[in-house]
Amino acid sequence: MKNNKGFANIWLVVLVVAVVVVGGYFFLQKLDTPPTQEPPDQTSTPATDETAGWEVYKDEKFQIELKQPLKTNTSTFHFVVSAFNTDLDIDKAVVSENEIGYAVHKVYGYGTKNPEITKLIVDGQEARLIKHANGKLFGLITSYPKPLTIKETGSDSYKFAHIRIFEPDINIVKKFIQTIKFMDGVKTDETTSWQTYRNEKYKFEFKYPNDWKDKSTNLDIFKQGRAVSVNGKKVSELLSATYLSGNGFETSVYVSNDINCKNESTWVAQEILSPVNVVSARENIKAANLDASKISYFYCGSSANPTCFAYISVCIHSSPSIVFDFTDGREVNGGKPTTDNISQSNRILSTFKFTK
């Protein structure tokens, strides 16, 4: 019995030692563990509008609203707004020779070789920022939502706005660009209130200005231009012929099974297709509601009446084919269609759609 009691005492001592060792281990571990940190406050601080105190500038002429930094004694920031027009897209207008006779970056001194150009979006529109080699001048080219008409220059339309920005700090330039907004004069879609031409038989429609008249009964108008015949068929034999005019503009629309839009000789008289008359060769037009071919040319009357007019002719790929001829009635001498006619034809075509 004494031996058993001794063993019991030994086991008791072992158990106490084990408890002390394990307890000490966990105590030391706790000392080595850094105190639990409270999670940082995740509430974000609203970003401050660094342009909030800038001066609001509204340009009624060029239909642009923006903010500019407040002027100080040391400030050099200033800008100049203008507008221009071209048939080219924005990238080609910036770096290529355009119809005005020069590239934008050349005429305004941004450099003639490989200028630094950044793609941007300004108020929902495509834009390009051009950096001058000296780093102190930037040029912003941006598309208008719709062509701008300036009263002082007559009825000509302008496709692009051009803002020259004199400021070496690119961060200020970027903040300045972010404040640019287009005004209502170039944002309202005037075609929504236009009257509608609808061809029930061939299932298509488009809109045209309210001050235009439908003079389709006067088919002789075709004899004054190139549409005397289409592939040997007289105008009166076309499936459909429509003539609309107003405010100096004339638009002829006709439908034929004898036209192949991919072969302009089937919808433009052969004598017109000579290099002397063609202004721009056939090109394809792709849009959400439009698949067509386009050609620009000018046509002169007889020797007794040698007056020349520029035309834009658009052939819509359909069966049967549908052709639009646009002119604004201005006399030309081997010249291109006016910016007015280009703009007007684009607006009308933007409303074209097939109906059920």
Q: What class do helices, strands and sheet pairing give? A: alpha+beta
Main sheet attributes: strand count, strand direction, barrel closure: 7 strands, antiparallel
Mean pLDDT across all amino acids: 76
**Terminal residue distance:** 112 Å
Shape: elongated
CATH architecture type of the largest domain: 3-Layer(aba) Sandwich
Task: Kindly report the spatial arrangement of strands forming the biggest sheet.
Answer: 11-14-15-19-18-17-16
CA-atom Rg in angstroms = 36 Å
Number of domains: 2
* Helical segment count: 6
- Superfamily (CATH H level) name of the largest domain: Mog1/PsbP, alpha/beta/alpha sandwich
What is the highest CATH level, the class of the largest domain?
Alpha Beta
SSE order, one letter for each helix or strand: HEEEHHEEEEHEEEEHEEEEEEEEHE
Q: Strand percentage, roughly?
A: 35-45%
Topology, number of strands: 20
Task: List the uncertain runs.
Answer: 35-46, 221-232
CATH topology group of the largest domain: Protein Transport Mog1p, Chain A
